[in-house]
Amino acid sequence: MTASAREVETVTRQRKRRTRSRTISPLGPIVVSKLSPAEYDLDPASISLVCPSCRTWVPIRVAETERATAKLVPHHTEPAGTEDPVRCLLGSHRLVTIDVNVAKWSRRLEEGVAETSGRRADRVVRKPQPTPTPAVMQIVGGFVDDKTARRMSELHIKSCTFCSATTPRCPDGRRLVHLAAHTQRTEPLRRKRQTEQEEWDDKRAWALRLLHEQQWNTVSRAVHATDQQRVRDGLAALRMMLLAPTKPDVRPLTAWERADLETTIAAVERQMEDLTHRW
Fold first, then answer.
1. Can you tell me whether residue 162 is helix, strand or coil?
2. Which are the contacts of 141, defined by CB distance < 8 A and separation ≥ 6?
3. Alpha carbons 244 and 236: distance in angstroms, whole number
């Protein structure tokens, strides 16, 4: 055996570093079934739980032996990277009793996530913003004109003993006085808006009438030709009935029926003349 081979055999192999210790916390073992479902994670890739002593998430080391003991790894009470961290003395190396079925826990977790997603609304419904309540003058002012408001105030002063006897008015009298002043102040603007609305209505009616005339001019020739053809066909049918030869098996027209038919033909002829001269 060469010297290089003996040197390789005598050098110890580099092994993976594991958190192994025979130290056990003086506290009793942590029973997973007694914890809240939000305080432990049994996923084999990241099995961990919340340490009851320092309330931080700590990994669980499960020994791959026949006894298969589970124990919390040594940990600190501060986040990683903190200077001079303090070790959790009571929670480190504390035994853990895993009495929860991993498959059942995973199935319940998936069902809980699906149920939560189903309760969550897909669309955000905005709360309607309340509209500000209009003032009394804005409510009544749209239905009462200037003259009516003044008349209401005068009638109230005459009928109210308190308003007619003293200068300070009652609540109703003050409201009516304010209403009269408001309508008097807004009367020019109201009349202007009313005039503008009437002008707009007149323009709209004129535009609709012009549009109707344009549409009628487009189809008037075809309609007039159809009317003439209909009257012409009816007149031809009436003349054929009047001038048709009598047949042996058909009863001839009486004198009254012939006179009535001639009157109808004359009326249709006048209608035909009217259609011809009108165009």
1. helix
2. 179, 182, 183, 186
3. 12
Residue 238 zone, left/alpha/beta (φ > 0; ψ -120 to 50; rest): alpha
Q: What is the pLDDT along the chain (279 residues), one digit of tens a residue?
A: 555 555 555 454 555 555 556 778 888 888 988 888 888 888 888 888 889 888 888 888 887 665 667 888 888 887 777 788 888 888 888 888 888 888 888 887 777 666 555 555 667 778 888 877 666 555 555 567 778 888 888 888 888 877 766 666 777 777 788 888 888 888 888 888 889 999 999 999 999 999 999 998 898 888 888 888 988 888 888 888 888 777 777 788 788 888 888 898 899 888 888 888 765
Overall pTM > 0.90: no
Q: Could you say which DSSP state residue 57 is in?
A: E
* Residue 88: other Cβ atoms inside 10 A: 22
